[in-house]
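Feature request, filed as a ticket because there's no other form

It would be nice if the structure record came with a short human-readable summary line next to the tokens. Right now we just get the raw output. Example of a typical job, pasted below so the devs can see what we mean:
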Amino acid sequence: MNDMRIKTTLITLAIIALSTVPLGRLAAQTLEEAIVYTESEQFGNADKAFQSLVSQQPQNGTNYYYFGDSFIKRFLVDSVSTTLEETTKNARAQFEKGNNAEPANPLNLIGLGEVALFKKDIAAAKSYFDQAIALLPTKKNKIKMDKELNALAYIKIADAYVKSQTKDTAAIFSMLREAQKVSPKNIEAYLVRGDAYNYLLNDGSQAVSNYNNAARINTKSPAAQLKLGQLWKRARDYESALKQYQLVTQIDPNYAIAYKELGYLNSQLGNTQAAKDNFKKFLSLSSGNNDAQLQYINTLFQLKDYAEVATQAQAMLNNNSSNADLYRALGYSEVELGKNEAATATLDKLFKNSAPEKIRIADYVYYARALANMKNDVGAGDYYLKAFKLNEAQYDYLDNAIKFYTSAGDQQKILDAYKLKNPDYYTVTDNFYIGVAYMRLKQYELAAEKFQLVIDKSPDFMTAYQLRAASLNNLDTDVKGLAMPAYQLLLDKTASDPTKYANERGEAYSYMNYYYYQQYQKGQVREDARKAIDFGQKALEIDPNNANAKTINDYLVKYLRSLDQKAKR
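Raw output as currently delivered:
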């Protein structure tokens, strides 16, 4: 326990001291420096430092705790690149190792409780926290522990609730009261209480009060002032946030995170050059920090400086050709710059260097956009379909896939795509295009069914009447009049505006001309011939170049005339 007491005190003092040192100059060999790497979001450097520490000091549970905590902080900074599942898995592994290495250290039990909170297992979290609290000094037990570690344990329990967005304010404030009984002027207790008011209770005034209390305890610490800036930004008081972040840089000109916040805020405000300048300052204070460089590239992308994104990403790829995020930034920018062939080659490398669970919807969307720009409609449809399958609530991607399959005329892919959509949510347009696809694939019965659904929902959709009749006509290979009622209905529906629907009516008359011609051929009933001629004449009035109607009518008129002449002899 004595070693732990010394280490905890040193951690608190060292973080304050190291916050003024440009991080790129550190060769992380101590826990204090590793923690600073985490706090400054240099997660790659932090990983290396922690791995070295746990290798050198395998029985030190505190090292494992902060190693596990770094995974959680990484997720909170970038929940897109890092999934909750892998975060909790990696963090839990370190907390379990730490607890096994030093069972009397409460921190790793708290870490396990925090993992449980992120996984929404409140009961398990409480069990871990209760076990951790049982290791802390009370009036009844004889446990000896440094006051700062004792307070830290309570604070970390409270912070676990805040970071996981678990709104149990009774537990949070209870833990913070216990911490301040032990250490009344603990800055971290005020900061966590401020976060609870800010992020869980949306009580800005109480948050400000606690952040200011922390600032009064240590006027030279930039952490509380940074929290105030983040509060004003969250409240959309951007002018106050800007002033607050500038105050942080005055307190500590080497406090890298303040410049990152200024970069983001200026980007949001449209101050492009100021955003770039602040990110460059952030990078200069984080020399060799790949995480910082990636954040800068992402900001350039938000600023739509795609050419500079491509330049920066390519420069980094020259030294790190396996970083998927760099291929992502480069590929996206190449699409935006119209370099579509280069983009597909870059994104192919992204897919090659990424585990399947790391592929994002936007990766497939950008690939689809590149293929669409290259007039590869089927390929574009395929990649929009991949995007949809990653989030089947996003029907826009499925609709885009169908649009490109339709443009390509790939009827089977159209149907296959529609099968991924819940039929209960089919629109009139959906049913219409499914019907068209069935019709073009010569599945006329299914086509007729779909067009009937369209008619039921949209009784004035004349093309649906026409295509339903045409589908039934194609089914009627023996010319038994299967399509006759459908074409008669089409004529009835279009009677109010024969000029507008001339083509539809012409098709109906042409069908009836042919139907009655066939009936006459079978039964030699003159009435059928006269009907055929009448409908043929109506078809020819609409389209004098209707070759079928003209041929049938010429034949029937000539044939009936010959019969009449024979009858007179």
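Something like this underneath would help us a lot:
Residues 95 and 111 are 6 Å apart (CA to CA).
Residues 1-28 have pLDDT under 50 and may be disordered.
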